[in-house]
Amino acid sequence: MKHLLITFFGILFLSVMPSKAEDGSRLWLRQADNAQAKVNIPRSSPTLNIAAEELQKAWKGLPIDLVLKKDKTLQADGFRISYGKEKVTLTSPTEVGLLYGAYHLLRGQDTQPEARPSAEEAEVHNPAYTLRILNHWDNLDRTVERGYAGRSLWNWEELPQTASPRYEAYARANASIGINGTVLNNVNASPKILTEEYLKKVKALADIFRPYGLRVYLSVNFASPMALDSLPTADPLNKEVIRWWKNKAKEIYRLIPDFGGFLVKANSEGQPGPCDFGRTHADGANMLADVLKPYKGIVMWRAFVYSPSDADRAKQAYLEFEPLDGQFRKNVIIQIKNGPIDFQPREPYSPLFGAMPQTTLMAEFQITQEYLGHSNHLAYLAPMWKEFFEYVSPASLKAIAGVTNIGTDTNWCGHPLAQANWYAFGRLAWNPSLTSEEIADEWLKQTVYKEPLEAILKGKATDVQGWKATHAQLIRLMTESREAVVNYMMPLGLHHIFAWGHHYGPEPWCTIPNARPDWLPSYYHQADKTGLGFDRSAQGSNATGQYPEELAKQWNDLNTCPEKFLLWFHHVPWTHRMKSGQTLWDELCHYYDKGVRQVRDFQQVWDRAEAYIDPQTFSDVQCRLKTQVRDAVWWKDACLLYFQEFSAMPIPYDVERPIHNLKDLQKVHLPINNYVCPSPELLNQNR
Ligand code: GCW
Fold it and tell me: To test ligand 1's pocket by mutation, which of 344, 370, 404 has the most ligand atoms within 8 angstroms of CB?
């Protein structure tokens, strides 16, 4: 009797206990681990064992057979799921494909528990790209360039002896969304990464990642032979230099037989490169490609170049790379940022895409929010990447890379909702035809709520109708969030009007004596008494001329240019009539105001959702939204009050009045680390 009572109270206690607060460390992999599913694997191997274990722990459906088999409809890494009456069969030509299939099944269970496919149905899933790669801008001292989520994950000092459990968690998270490559170090690369000491550390990471299908790549400094072994030159045509790289490749592949290859930032922002020795980008890339070829390694060569020349910065990558089309080896991929300048909140696509038909190309997205509010602001980036795909056909690219937002923060990405950008990157690199809403729907269901979706839908503790309405609002909040950032920072095609150095707050007035003109905001906004914007039409820098004829024609004309790109391509009179009938000035004011209003609306949506959301996630995001509103108002006041000095026109009365004075704003930078609220760690302690 006593025993029974204890059990009874035990159960009672468990059922009234609040659900465990979520610190975000489990990402979108919060499945229960007691399912005891029946899983058959064709053989034991590190990868297949992981697939089996993941399913055994969490799969609640029919028994599953994993089958390794070639099949005309399946590419490497692709998989087929056949639903029978008594079992599910997962087929793939590769072990990693089976692992991806396992995660796919679990994702379906978490996000669409009601959609049990009927028997005899089969689904085929192939990735759109063979390379789906994260780029870490992590330095060897564990600082992260443009990282806002703590320090670098890689603890170089402890490696290779000690391996943090987070390395495996990282590989698992990537595998669960199909990411299959990682460049461990910053493109501003320290030559030290290629020393024997560091290569052993890299090997330790590669060994942990391998079973998850995650290959390791390194950023290399083009002058490494000079820095490490005092060669007098790094000229790519020099025999000693070539021999040096050959030996280095041999050393790397002895340690890491499946090493992926090199990523190179050359002759860009002070980095060394072949042009220092009178050679071309093609000479440099091809030399490294030849060295890696026997091992099937690749070279990802970045096209992010611009020099302090007279040419419009937006034109420079094209001017330098387009003439090299057809000159690169087969195992070179030119890695191009999505836009022609630099990861701005909105840019038109880079005209290099489509201009090099004889060359293999890949796109570089930025997952970390260097220019979109760091980890303080909510900016779900799937809509930005989808916008890129409206102009650049996914099929024209070989691969996709994303500059990560991952660090040592407990929740990995700083802002709890910024995890969604890592997730969305992986999902789109696998399948670019997914919509932003679909991805947000999946991610939210797996992460922010107090209970797993299946429990929510059973309605024991949750008002299902209320939850559904809330969920729809949260999807809206996420999908509108990037546009809100554009609105309060740089609407209508404005770009690069950030504060000197930190790329967080506004500083359209910034002047620095002797600074390169293309590092100053006035170079980009060109505000004067007549109007605003950069004239890149045929009368101006003629950047429009780098685009395919039809687009060039459309974008060249002030009246047919999409208004979202207007000030990118045109210097527009303040009194110009916009499509809405308003003047440019009034429209600009309304966009800034709209951005602020949108973030205030996000606050309301979030607060209304409190009942359904995990408490820790709830307060963390609530706090960050306060910071975001503060910053949005700051941006709006700074930009409108500054541009008003040129337009000399009144701010329309329906626009929220400024609460700052321009003079005060000009004295300080918008504080980055001065959150309106305490950090999540502090929040926890105060709980
Ligand atoms: O986005 C800019 C950043 C630099 C970065 C550079 C690049 C790694 O401000 O921090 O350097 O681009 O992409 O190389």
Answer: 370
Pick the closest to residue 274 from 332, 350, 343 (CA basis).
332
What ligand 1 atom has the least distance to the C-alpha of 371? Answer: 1
Mapping DSSP to helix (H, G, I), strand (E, B) and coil, where does residue 608 land?
A: helix
pLDDT recorded at residue 675 = 63
The secondary structure of 562-591, three-state, reads CHHHHHHHCCEECCCECCCCCEHHHHHHHH
The string over 298-321, giving b where at least 16 C-beta atoms fall within 10 Å of a residue's C-beta and e elsewhere, is: bbbbbbbbbeeeeebbbbbbbebb
pLDDT per residue over 364-380, tens digit each? 999 999 999 999 999 99
Is 483 one of the annotated active-site residues of the chain? no
Residue 350 gets which letter from DSSP? P
φ/ψ of 261, rounded to 5, equals: 145, -165
Distance CA 383, CA 485 (A): 12
CA-CA distance, 162 to 166, in Å (whole number)?
12
- Residue 332, sorted as left (phi over 0), alpha (psi -120 to 50) or beta, turns out to be beta
317 neighbors 350 (Cβ within 8 angstroms): yes
User: From the CB of 54, is ligand 1 less than 6 Å away?
Assistant: no
Asked if 606 contacts 625 with a C-beta cutoff of 8 angstroms, the reply is yes
* Average pLDDT per consecutive 10 residues, the chain (687 residues; last block may be shorter): 40 43 92 92 98 97 96 94 94 98 97 76 92 98 97 98 98 98 98 98 98 98 98 98 98 98 97 98 98 98 89 95 98 98 98 97 98 97 98 95 98 97 98 98 97 92 94 98 98 96 94 89 97 98 98 98 98 98 98 98 98 96 96 98 98 98 94 65 48
Q: Residue 390, SS3?
A: helix
Q: The tokens of 297 are what?
A: 């390694």
Ligand 1 neighbour 347 (Cβ under 6 A):
no
**Distance (Å) of CA 527 to CA 63, 216, 573, 576:** 66, 46, 10, 14
- Pinpoint the alpha helices (H) of 256-381: 281-292, 313-321
Q: For residue 300, list its beta bridge partners.
A: 263, 333
512: part of which helix (H) or strand (E)? none
CA angle 435, 441, 443 (to 5 degrees): 105
To the query of whether residue 342 is one of the catalytic residues in this protein, the response is yes
**Active-site residue among 342, 409, 518, 586?**
342
Return the SS3 of 206: helix
pLDDT at 677: 62
Is 251 marked active-site?
no
198 lines ligand 1 (CB under 6 A): no
Helices (H) and strands (E) in the chain, counts: 21, 15
Closest CA to 588 of 629, 531, 630, 540: 531
Q: What is the largest CA-CA distance in the chain?
A: 92
8 A C-beta contact, residue 105 and residue 26: no
Token pair listed for 44 = 């034991």
Mutation probe of ligand 1 site: the residue of 269, 371, 502 with most atoms within 8 A of C-beta = 269
Residue 276: its pLDDT value, please? 97
Give dist(CA 345, CA 422) in Å, integer: 17
Scanning the structure block, which residue is given the tokens 């079992």? 87
